[in-house]
Amino acid sequence: EKHGTFKGGPPIDMRHVQGPDAGGSPPETTSLSNATVLAVKAGGKDRLAMLFDLGDSPDSAEGYAVLALYDTAGKPTLLDAVNVALDRDTYFQEPDRLSVGANDD
Prior knowledge:
Layout: E1 6-8, E2 30-32, E3 34-42, E4 45-56, E5 63-71, E6 77-83
Antiparallel strand pairs: 1-2, 3-4, 4-5, 5-6
């Protein structure tokens, strides 16, 4: 950790939210400067959405941001992860969730 930023090896390559032709390559080294956690309900089940800013993509103007969804019943389990970067800055905007049903955020 240096100046509030954690550094590590390269993240795995993962699909982009806009499809196979979108998004850039993962950065050569991970630079975790920001992570946001949001508790949500999906299908009436408690979930945890985590947004990780992993730095800049070496071949794209956009960054590399991972949205991960975890099942929080018992030991947290990763359900899915996707690169959601569409710009250099990716974050949860207010309102941070919109209800789509009686048991969903």
